[in-house]
Amino acid sequence: MSSTHVSTKINGQAVEYVCPNDASLLEVLRDQLGMTGTKEGCGSGDCGACSVTVDGRLVCSCLVLGVEAQGRAVETIEGMANKNQLHKLQEKFLEKAALQCGICTPGVLIAARSLLEKNPDPTEQEVRYWIAGNLCRCTGYDKIVRAILESAKELREEAA
Amino acid sequence: MSEYQAREFKVLGQRLKRPDGFDKVTGRARYGADVEAAGMLHGRILRSPHAHARIVSIDTSAAEALNGVKAVITRADFPQAAKGYEDIQDNCMAGERALYDGHAVAAVAATSKRIAKQALKLIKVEYEVLPHVTGVEQAIAPGAPIVQPGKVSKRVPEGFSDNVVRYTSFGHGDVEAGFAKADAVIEREYRTEASHQGYIEPHACLATLDEDGRGDLWVCTQGHYFIRDMSCAVLGLESANLRVTASEIGGGFGGKTTVFVEPVALALAKKSGHAVKLVMTREEVLRATGPTVSTYMQVKLGLNKDGIITAAYARLFYQAGAYKQGTADFGAMPAFAPYELENVHTEGLDVITNRPRTASYRAPGAPTACYAAESAIDEACLELGLDPLEVRLKNAAKEGTKSSYGPTYQDHGLIQCLEAVKDTEHWNAPLAANQGRGLAAGFWFNFGGETSVSVFLNTDGSVTVTEANPDIGGSRASISMMVAEEFGINYEQVRTTVTDTGSMGQNEPTHGSRVTFAVGMAAIKASREIKADIQQRLAKMWDVSADQVIWQDGKAHCTDNSKGIEPMSLPEIGAIANNTGGPIGAHHGANMEGAGVAFGVHICDTEVDPETGFVSVKRYTAIQDAGKMIQPDYVEGQLQGGAVQGIGWALNEEYVYGDDGRLQNPGFLDYRIPVASDMPMIDTVIVEVPNPGHPFGVRGVGETPIVPPLAAVGNAVSRATNVRLRHLPMSPPRVLAAIQSA
Predict the structure, then answer these.
(1) How confident is the model at residue B1 (pLDDT cuts 50, 70, 90)?
(2) For residue B2, what pLDDT is reported?
(3) Which of B194, B205, B241, B504 lies at a 20 to 30 A Cα distance from B679?
(4) Taking CB atoms and an 8 Å limit, are B473 and A133 in contact across chains?
């Protein structure tokens, strides 16, 4: 398998890597760049644990090739907090106990942020359908949905 | 003897943040697959494509010759397993026969994942395909292909194939006499399909093992002592020489209490001389780990017209996978546990098939048995025109009731849970067209078991708790809270750490709903030893007797006011420890007895589309006795998560096998667990009836929540459609067929 040199931006930082042409973005992030915050639950796009955004679009990084990041901007869980200042969603997930084991949490947070960027005032149903691609086996989703709705409300209030 | 003392709590009951939370919302937490080692190789396992086959030969020479391959192993690389661990070894790596689709037959370690994958294709296995059986009813029939000859226990009754390997029975009274007294006797059969625990994190580990049998293992597991002891038994190692560290764990639900890849990674590490990382794919997780039982269950129930159960009988066939298990016992015991019965008899029969070796899944055995029992009760209520809540209240087990499985109950909260149903808005809300409401009770024993904890007072007065049970749902927080409560200090002054097998004595895994109860109790007892030690030290210093030193509001006080001694805080005591006898700390290691039983009652509203058979859950309430809540969010979370797992089992999740004995749906697309858009909010009501066996009254809460949903959903669907469905999951094709054939 031949490899390709890739210049990209990850969480605002310029990054260069050489990856096999068939390597997924997930593989590059985890195995080559040591960014293990993005998780692999299935490798087939069914669980959402590997959710990241590429140029602002929510994707499963297991279904994107590493070479596709060329010239784009990738956002991962590692870039969500500003140093030790957590994003509202991260804070709310802790406050509302919206995680148990925590393995789906990075993917859910990335997906939720992506939702709120597009729709700052989602209904419960809109939240449930947006994160339907992020499997959680621990919580039954109740506290996750509540945390997202409450984050949205507080972010709206802060913006007003 | 009662451990419980009624008191006011300051820390318990608060919704405090978990100490591991920050790392988990920022991606810093390290799970099984998140570590690397210098010179690390990647392991990969070759699996049988056949449900049942004799392994004639394995030729590994081409794989070994591939550039980058550092080791190839088969069963020939394993020593004879220690007695009692033969099945565990055989499940990790097949011997003479592959017993199910996905059974490991060889493994490689290579310098990259790609090379490892390529090497698998170069291993030539010659199989002689043998007849197979995967269905529980097919497997018990005389004449069925026999999965493992010579495994039948003495007590198994006549008339079955040799796949029925184990039999147990429980009960008391005379069920025949009870049925004779009944006004209505119903006899029904129920079936459930196998589900998987469905943790989102696949099994993963990183192993080193040198020629002398010294090694280290990093692994995602519910119990690193079990993993250590099983790996040692399978590989001929000594426990002291294998240090196992538990990573953060991405869900387990019982499925991560045994070994699958760990001995394989260790054997590859030994043979290659390198660290080996082995991570399962999702397909491997579904084909070769977990799953839970599938069942065929017969129930006979007698009721008089007042709704009193005169007799209850159940015979439960549990499909255990390819090896003998004991799960049927844990179905036969709890089936009728919520009720005070004069006459009860349950039988559990374990059946082996050409399927993966089943693993525990949250209250293993109970959900299916209680599904059968609670469905039969609902059918009897409909037949006799009785209210399902009143019937359950009339028959409910109380303190002092002789349980259906033998022991007499101590105080518990079943009746309070049932009474709480009446008070919910949910139970009294109207239903729309095509909707039905189901009610079901559930039970789990809960467990204590081997537990080791150390507590230290630091010189600045903060408290370190060292324990060794992987934290799945917030146990580090709850244990810190209990220790803070015991010392009368703030939660933030206590930090609880989960340590490795080289640093702490034996612990049962994080299973049996035991950790908050057992580890918490051990930590409280160690804290009490520390307080007693401090009392001695201060008594000496203050020149009073030890009983004149008392604890109040986080400080040691001298009761002899004539001395004019100021109370001392933990920071003050910690600061002078060096002068009062040295480091202050205590270890508590014991089998923690007194885990109180936990009852739950669930209410479910479903709506059934008569044209497609699709069932949607419109509303759900889970009610449970938690004894004493430590952190209410985490108790609610257990109820909500367990309920949704149960809903998935009831409506969707199913292992589908083809005629060829191969699993047809080994992926999250086709093995579909509930997603957010499938579910409503899950309302919870927590009842607190203190467990007499715990100093603060705590009961385990983790497992009971998966027990009632199967029947609660089943009863709701049956009431919505006026057709009784007796086969889970109630997927649209099954529901539609039932509606159309009615």
Answers:
(1) low
(2) 87
(3) B194
(4) no
Distance CA B342, CA B403 (A): 10
Is the CB of residue B204 less than 8 Å from the CB of residue B31?
yes
Distance from CA of B703 to the nearest CA of A (A): 12
Residue finishing a domain among A23, A49, A79: A79
Q: How many other β-carbons are positioned within 10 Å of the β-carbon of residue A108?
A: 30
B414-446+596-742 shares the fold of B41-131+199-288 = no
Task: For chain B, give the mean pLDDT.
Answer: 97
Task: Answer whether B117 touches A (CB < 8 Å).
Answer: no
What mean pLDDT is predicted for residues B403-410? Answer: 97
- Tens digits of residue pLDDT in B532-575: 999 999 999 999 999 999 999 899 999 999 999 999 999 999 99
**Is B511:B223 a contact under the CB 8 Å cutoff?**
yes
CATH number for the region B21-28+448-592 comes to: 3.30.365.10
The total domain count for chain A is: 2
Q: Would you give the DSSP letter of residue B431?
A: -
DSSP assigned state of A65: B
How many residues belong to chain A?
Answer: 160
- The alpha carbon of B675 is separated from its chain's Cα centroid by a whole number of angstroms, namely 21
Alpha-carbon span B107 to B465, nearest angstrom: 40
Q: Which CATH class is domain B41-131+199-288?
A: alpha beta
Tokens of B388: 């399902």
Q: Does A131 touch chain B (CB under 8 A)?
A: yes
ipTM over 0.95: yes
Whole-number percent of chain B with pLDDT over 90: 99
B chain contacts of residue A136, beta-carbon cutoff 8 Å: 200, 676
